[in-house]
Specification:
Leucine-rich repeat, LRR (right-handed beta-alpha superhelix); 39 strands; about 20% strand; kinase; ATP-binding
Length: about 775
C-alpha cells in the first residue's frame, strides 16, 4: 500500500522541499543591497518581542538578535534594501531550529512581511490573524492547534501555504477563491474535519486557484464525498492526495481532466464503486495509490494507457475479474501490488513478464489459477525483482525453474498456492529439493526466504559476484585494453588504475577498473564494491557490465570490474582542469543548468542509496572524481570501494575529513554522505577545492561560503559570467538562484549531523530552482 514510508512520505518531502526552496528564492528575490540609514524602532522592538516569546532555542539561532548588529543582519531576518525595514517586503526564516513556545503574536505587527517560514520547530498556540501580505507561509512540523484562521482567505498574494504535521482541528473555513496565485496547499497530518458530509466543501473554492500544482489533504478526519468540482481544479495540478481519511462515495469521473497529474494517492478511505475509466487519460501519472479504499468492480483496461507508471498500489480492495492484460503496456512499472482482492483467471504473460519490475510483485490472496508462466517473456524476465508474493491462490503445475534467474530476489512466498506435488529442484544460490505437498511449499518458501536474507545481509563472496555478473576472462580484458597500455590509461588511485577499452566482438566501449592487490585494503575494496553493486541499480549510479576474478598470465591474482564508459570523464576534470569557455585555448566549462542537473543526479543517487534500498547504503566517498559524466553530461556516481566498511579502513587519499562526519553518536549514519554532497555543491559552484591551501586555521569551504552569503554570492562563484551566461546585468538577475543553491550546500554541510538538510529535501530544492530558471 502507499503509506507514509512509501508514497505519502514522498508527498511530505515534496511539501517540505517546495517550502524551503521557495522561501530561499523569494527571500533572495526581495533582498536588496544597501546600508541602513537608521534603525526602525517599530521593527526592532517587534523582533525582540518575538525573541522573548520563544522559550527555548537549543541551536542558538537567535544569538545574533542583539544590539551589536543592526536587526537587518540578524540571522533569519531579511530587510528591504531600500527601506531597511522588515515590514517592507521582507522575510523571517526561522526554520529547522527546534524552537519551543507559543507563536509570538508580535509577528502580526510586521504586517507587510511576505515570507514567514517557521518550518520544523516545536511551536505551539495559534496563528496570528493579520498577516495579509504573505506570499509564503509555512509552519510544517510544529505543534500548532485550533482552527485554521479564516483571515487567510484574504491573503490574496499567497503562493505557498503549508500547515502540515501540526494539531489543527475543525472545519476548513477558508475561502480560497481569492488566492489566485496559490501553487501549493499542504494541510496533511492534522485533525481537520469531523467525518461528516460537508468536510470537503472548501475544495470547490480551490477551482479559482489556476496555478495550483500540489494539494495535500491526507491523514486528517475528512468525511463526506469528493465533490464533483474536483475535476475542475487546475490542469497544472501534479500532486494530489486525499489519503488516510474517511471519505466515501464514488470517485468523480472528472478526475480524468487533471491531465498533468504525476502522483495520485487515495489510499485508506471508504469509497464505493470502481476506478473511473477516465483515469486512463492521466498519461503523466507515475504513482497511483487506491489501496485499502473498498473499491470494487473490475480493474479498468484503460489503466494500460499509463505508460509512465512506476508504482501501482491496488491491494486490499474488492476488485473482481481478471488482471488486465493492458498492464503489460506499463514498461516503467517497478512495483505492482494487487494482493487481497477477488481477482481470478490466469496471470497475463505480458504482466508477469514485465522486465521493469524491480521492487515488488504481489498477487497474493486472490483466486488466481492456471500455471505460473515459465521461461522468457514471463516470470523469468523479472531478473531484478526483489520481492515476489503469490501465496493463497489456486495455481497448478510446477514451481517455475525460471525462479533461478531472479538473482535479486530477497523475499519469496508461494505458500498455499497448490502447485504440483511432483518433486522439483531449483537453485537460488543453493540446490534445494522441494518436499511434497502444501507443507513442502510452505517449508520451501521459508527456507529460501531465510537463505536469501542471510545472503543479502552477510559478507560478500565471489560466488555472489558470479551470480550477479558474467565473469569475463583476463585474456579478453588484455585484448580490449591493448595489454593495459598507458595510452588507454584514463585514471589512477589508491585502489589501482582505470583503462579505456573496446570489448569484442560487439565493439562496446568500456572502462576497466584494475585493482592493485598489493596495496593494503584493496581486496576488501573490491569485495565491498562487488557487494554494493550486486544489490543496487539506479540510473545515476555507474553501470557495471561484467567482472573478472582470475589470474594473469604469470599466475598472479587479478581482479577487475568492467563499467560502462563515460565519455565526458569525471566532474573533477570539468571543475579544476578545464578553463572557462572563451579563453585563449577554447577549453570547456559547465554552465548553470548543467551544474544543477549534475547536482540533481548525484542527490538522486544518494536518495536511492539512503532511502530506497532495503538496507541503507552509505557511499562514504562522494567527491568530484567519483562523479562521472556520460555523453549528455548526465552524472553517475561511482567508486563504491569504501562502501559499508569505512569503520574498518579509511582511504587516506580521500578528502573525507574524519569518520566523525559519518557518525551520529556511536552509530554510522548516512549524514556523512549528506555532508559530502553539501561540500560537492559548494565546490561545483565556487570552483574551490575543499583542500585548497586557503582553507586553514579554522577556515573551511563551508565557512567561506557561509560568511559570504547573501551579498557576496556572485563574488565567490566560479567564473560567474560564464556560469550564468551573458553580460553582468544578466548575471545579476540570476544571482538570486546562486544564493539559494549555495545555501543548500551550506545547509547540507553543517557541522552537526542532526542539523543537516535531508538529502531528499536537497534534491527537490535544487530541482525547484532548476524549474524556475527554465521558466525564466
Amino acid at each position: 500500500m502507499i503509506n507514509l514510508s512509501q508514497f505519502q512520505l514522498s508527498f511530505c518531502i515534496a511539501a517540505f522541499l517546495w517550502t524551503m526552496c521557495m522561501a530561499l528564492l523569494l527571500e533572495a528575490t526581495l533582498t536588496g543591497v544597501g546600508t541602513a540609514s537608521g534603525e526602525n524602532e517599530t521593527d526592532r522592538l517587534a523582533l525582540l518581542a518575538i525573541k522573548t516569546q520563544i522559550t527555548d532555542a537549543p541551536l542558538r539561532a537567535m544569538s545574533s538578535w542583539n544590539d551589536s548588529l543592526h536587526f537587518c543582519q540578524w540571522q533569519g531576518v531579511s530587510c528591504s534594501g531600500r527601506h531597511q525595514r522588515v515590514t517592507f517586503h521582507r522575510a523571517i526564516n526561522l526554520s529547522n531550529n527546534s524552537f519551543q513556545g507559543e507563536v509570538p503574536p508580535e509577528i502580526g505587527r510586521l504586517f507587510r512581511m511576505q515570507i514567514l517560514n517557521l518550518t520544523n520547530n516545536w511551536l505551539e498556540g495559534q496563528i496570528p490573524s493579520n498577516l495579509l501580505n504573505l506570499r509564503l507561509f509555512s509552519v510544517h512540523v510544529n505543534r500548532l492547534s485550533g482552527p485554521i484562521p479564516v483571515s487567510l482567505s484574504n491573503t490574496s498574494n499567497l503562493e505557498i501555504l503549508d500547515l502540515s504535521s501540526n494539531k489543527f482541528s475543525g472545519m476548513v473555513a477558508i475561502n480560497f477563491g481569492n488566492l489566485h496565485n496559490l501553487r501549493r496547499l499542504a494541510v496533511f497530518s492534522n485533525y481537520l474535519g469531523s467525518g461528516e458530509a460537508n468536510d470537503l466543501s472548501f475544495v470547490s473554492s480551490l477551482t479559482n486557484c489556476t496555478r495550483l500544482k500540489i494539494l495535500f489533504l491526507s491523514d486528517n478526519n475528512f468525511g463526506g464525498v469528493l465533490p464533483y468540482s474536483l475535476g475542475n481544479l487546475s490542469t497544472q495540478l501534479q500532486w494530489l492526495s486525499f489519503a488516510a481519511n474517511q471519505i466515501s462515495g464514488n470517485i468523480p469521473t472528472g478526475i480524468g481532466n487533471l491531465v498533468n497529474l504525476i502522483a495520485l494517492d487515495m489510499h485508506k478511505n471508504q469509497f464505493t464503486g470502481s476506478i473511473p475509466t477516465s483515469n486512463g487519460n492521466l498519461h503523466k501519472l507515475q504513482e497511483v495509490g487506491f489501496d485499502k479504499t473498498k473499491l470494487s468492480g473490475v480493474i479498468p483496461s484503460s489503466i494500460g494507457n499509463l505508460t509512465l507508471l512506476n508504482q501501482l498500489w491496488l491491494e486490499e480492495n474488492n476488485f473482481q475479474g481478471s488482471v488486465p492484460s493492458t498492464l503489460g503496456n506499463c514498461h516503467n512499472l517497478i512495483l505492482l501490488h494487487l494482493y487481497g482482492n477477488n481477482l481470478s483467471g490466469d496471470i497475463p504473460r505480458g504482466v508477469i513478464g514485465l522486465s521493469s519490475l524491480a521492487k515488488s510483485l504481489s498477487l497474493a490472496r486472490n483466486s488466481l489459477s492456471g500455471l505460473l508462466p515459465l521461461g522468457s517473456g514471463s516470470l523469468g524476465s523479472c531478473i531484478r525483482l526483489e520481492r515476489l508474493y503469490m501465496y493463497d491462490n489456486s495455481f497448478g503445475g510446477d514451481i517455475p525453474h525460471s525462479l533461478n534467474t531472479l538473482r535479486g530476489l530477497e523475499e519469496l512466498d508461494l505458500s498455499h498456492s497448490n502447485p504440483s506435488e511432483e518433486k522439483q529442484k531449483m537453485s537460488l544460490g543453493l540446490k534445494l529439493t522441494i518436499p511434497v505437498g502444501l507443507s513442502g511449499i510452505i517449508l520451501m518458501s521459508c527456507i529460501i526466504l531465510r537463505r536469501l536474507k542471510k545472503v543479502s545481509k552477510g559478507q560478500p563472496s565471489e560466488s555472489l559476484l558470479q551470480d550477479r555478473f558474467m565473469n569475463i576472462s583476463y585474456g579478453l580484458l588484455v585484448k580490449a585494453t591493448d595489454g593495459f597500455s598507458s595510452a588507454h590509461l584514463i585514471g589512477t588511485g589508491s585502489f589501482g588504475s582505470v583503462y579505456k577499452g573496446i570489448l569484442h566482438p560487439n565493439e562496446t566501449v568500456i572502462a576497466v577498473k584494475v585493482f592493485n592487490l598489493q596495496n593494503r585494503g584493496v581486496s576488501k575494496s573490491f569485495m565491498a564494491e562487488c557487494e554494493a553493486l550486486r544489490n543496487i541499480r539506479h540510473r545515476n549510479l555507474v553501470k557495471i557490465i561484467t567482472a573478472c576474478s582470475s589470474v594473469d598470465f604469470h599466475g598472479n591474482d587479478f581482479k577487475a570490474l568492467v563499467y560502462e564508459y563515460m565519455p565526458n570523464g569525471s566532474l573533477e576534470t570539468w571543475l579544476h582542469q578545464f578553463a572557462p569557455v572563451g579563453n585563449a585555448h577554447g577549453q570547456r566549462s559547465l554552465n548553470l543548468l548543467q551544474r544543477l542537473n549534475i547536482a540533481i543526479d548525484v542527490g538522486s543517487a544518494l536518495d536511492y542509496l539512503h532511502n530506497q534500498c532495503q538496507d541503507p547504503n552509505i557511499h562514504f566517498d562522494i567527491k568530484p572524481s567519483n562523479v562521472l559524466l556520460d555523453n549528455d553530461k548526465n552524472a553517475h556516481v561511482g567508486d563504491f570501494g569504501l562502501a559499508r566498511f569505512l569503520h574498518h579502513h579509511i582511504n587516506e587519499n580521500s578528502h573525507i575529513q574524519t569518520s566523525s562526519v559519518y557518525s551520529m553518536g556511536s552509530d554510522l549514519s548516512t549524514q556523512g554522505d549528506v555532508y559530502s554532497h553539501g561540500i560537492l555543491l559548494l565546490e561545483m559552484f565556487t570552483g574551490k577545492n575543499p583542500t585548497d591551501d586557503m582553507f586553514n586555521d579554522g577556515l573551511s569551504l563551508h565557512k567561506f561560503v557561509d560568511m559570504a552569503l547573501p551579498g557576496g554570492a556572485t563574488e565567490i562563484v566560479d567564473h560567474v559570467r560564464t556560469l550564468l551566461g551573458g553580460e553582468e546585468e544578466e548575471a545579476a538577475s540570476f544571482s538570486i538562484y546562486l544564493i539559494s543553491i549555495l545555501r543548500i550546500g551550506v545547509a547540507c554541510s553543517k557541522e552537526s549531523p542532526r542539523g543537516r538538510m535531508d538529502i531528499c529535501d536537497a534534491v527537490l530544492e535544487v530541482h525547484s530552482i532548476k524549474d524556475m530558471i527554465d521558466e525564466t
